[in-house]
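FORM 12-B: Structure-to-Sequence Request
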């Protein structure tokens, strides 16, 4: 089957769910959770597949937050960034981690007790939550990057500068 056809069919199927449950636009959900990849597979239960893509992203960001909050086995470059993380940012990161963990627990429950309507409610709620989580994470990442860049600037002007 043509890949473009599959994507258009996915968009039409999603449009039905969107109208039925008041879901965000396909474009908005796709922007945050890459749901266009669902077009590559066949499914009878679209909400479950969307939930799966949300789960993947949530899980990845839980691991990222865990690495910053508890870097026991983190890559070396993480340690220098963590040193520059202010207590306020650690608290924000911990709060984000808590929100992501709550989403993750709901994902597990929905996986055990399927309901299209509950999936749709979850998708709406998580999409809204993700907006705030994302903006908070972006601010923390920018601070970490700026701190790293400042350290590199100081070290590059040292020996030969």
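FORM 12-B RESPONSE
SEQUENCE OUT:
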């Amino acid at each position: 089957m043509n890949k473009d056809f599959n994507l258009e069919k996915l968009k039409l199927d999603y449009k039905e769910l969107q109208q039925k449950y008041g879901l965000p636009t396909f474009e908005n959900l796709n922007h945050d959770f890459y749901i266009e990849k669902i077009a590559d597979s066949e499914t009878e239960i679209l909400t479950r597949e969307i939930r799966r893509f949300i789960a993947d992203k949530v899980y990845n960001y839980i691991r990222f937050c865990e690495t910053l909050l508890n870097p026991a086995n983190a890559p070396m470059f993480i340690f220098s960034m963590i040193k520059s993380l202010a207590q306020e940012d650690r608290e924000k990161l911990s709060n984000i981690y808590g929100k992501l963990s709550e989403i993750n627990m709901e994902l597990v429950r929905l996986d055990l007790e399927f309901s299209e309507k509950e999936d749709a409610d979850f998708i709406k709620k998580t999409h809204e939550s993700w907006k705030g989580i994302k903006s908070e994470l972006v601010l923390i990442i920018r601070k970490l990057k700026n701190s790293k860049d400042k350290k590199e600037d100081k070290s590059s002007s040292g020996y030969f500068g």
